[in-house]
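Worked example 4.2. Below are the chains of a multi-component assembly; read each line carefully before continuing.
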Amino acid sequence: MTEWSAAGVVALTGIIAVFAVLGLLSIAVIIAGKIFEARAHSKKTSSHSSGTSTQLRMAAGTMQSSKVNLHSSRAKG
Amino acid sequence: MQEQLMKNLADMGILYLNAGNVVMWIVAFTLFYLAIKKQIEPLLLIPIGFGIFIANFPLTGLLEEHGLFEMFYKFGISTELIPPLIFLGLGAMTDFGPVLANPKTFLLGAAAQLGVYGAFFTALLLGFSLPEAASIGIIGGADGPTSIFLSNALAPHLMGAVAVAAYSYMALVPIIIPPVARALTTKQERNIIMTQMRMVSKEEKIVFPIMGCIIIILLVPKSAPLIAMFMLGNLFMECGVVERLTDVSRNALMNIITILLGLSVGSRMTADTFLRLDTIGVFILGIVAFIVACAGGVLIAKLMNIFSKNKINPLIGAAGVSAVPMAARVVHVMGAKENPQNYLLMHAMGPNVAGVIGTAVCAGALISSLA
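Applying the procedure described above to all two chains together yields the following structure tokens:
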């Protein structure tokens, strides 16, 4: 009788341990996955917006230099 | 001179060969046949078979205190050194991507461990002691190194039979899984098409082994030898900056350790330790363990579908038996037969690799309770 009750305790402890460990691991993986996805998304967003502002600055610079050229060619003429 | 001659004659092994030795040779030849002709787990069955063959020659001294096989066993198995080193190699070969993409499948790996306890109770019914029943039950985890690790700790006299049963049944997974999975699922369930998995980033794969160690080892410290080495091997592979260590772990080291493991395990199977009723019990209970493990995974998958919006194909629950990657392949083939558009392989790899962790945790819990 003692052996069966001991066996029951061993089995219950083991099953709870396995499900608890793997359950916690799955929760941790879900949370980590969301954190990494959010980071990746914010990196993508910020690189997209910095790429856009770089393009705007380059366009402004081009316009500025063409204004200067126009001005200097008018001055020469 | 006559005395010397008589002494030399008396030292000839052939005079001491008995029927038990010959029966064990037949067992060894059977393993050779399965490995060479049928190509069933040859990497293990050949060294194990050879260990059995040589260990059953009389008067060799190989199993005496400083004998060759005794030293392999003493330094590799009884110190519990070899199984964790195998786990190092396994970790360096395992991709956790599928289970990280769908973390629910961790629970399917846990459910497959019900086979361990099903066989555990059945073994107790047949009169085995608690440590023996646990050593037999772990066959249901379908993990050779873990079976050897646990049985060596709890019932070393059963280790040989447990190891051969575990590796043999792992190879029989294509025969065991389909009827069990088919019996427990409907055609509609088998036809469930699973949605594409998300991409898992490199950073997630690098963080997982560390996170896994923290959670698992803090909760079940006795699983540390297996889990720590498994996660180390995985970290080697995923970090991408130690290719030499990854290469050695999964190739040279694994091959060396496999030879030593096979010879050590096989050499334990002498006629007097193997040819007993207990051994038949181990083999019968091993199949019970596998069937209950497969059933457990499928049934938990069906249960999860009751509560989940994104249905999972319950066939992948059967892949929770940690015979990686064979169980996942078998499930994929079953799913494709039902619906050629269904590609279950990567989905099934999730519970498959989760099962490896589950079995190691199970072993740790059993050692905590019974050692």
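Take a moment to check your reading of the output against the notes. Residues 277-307 of chain B form the longest helix (31 residues). Chain B touches chain A at residues 99-100, 103-104, 106-107, 109-110, 113-114, 116-117, 120-121, 124, 129-130, 133-134, 198, 200-201, 203-204, 207-208, 211-212, 215-216, 219-220, 354, 357-358, 361-362, 364-366, 368-370 (CB under 8 Å).
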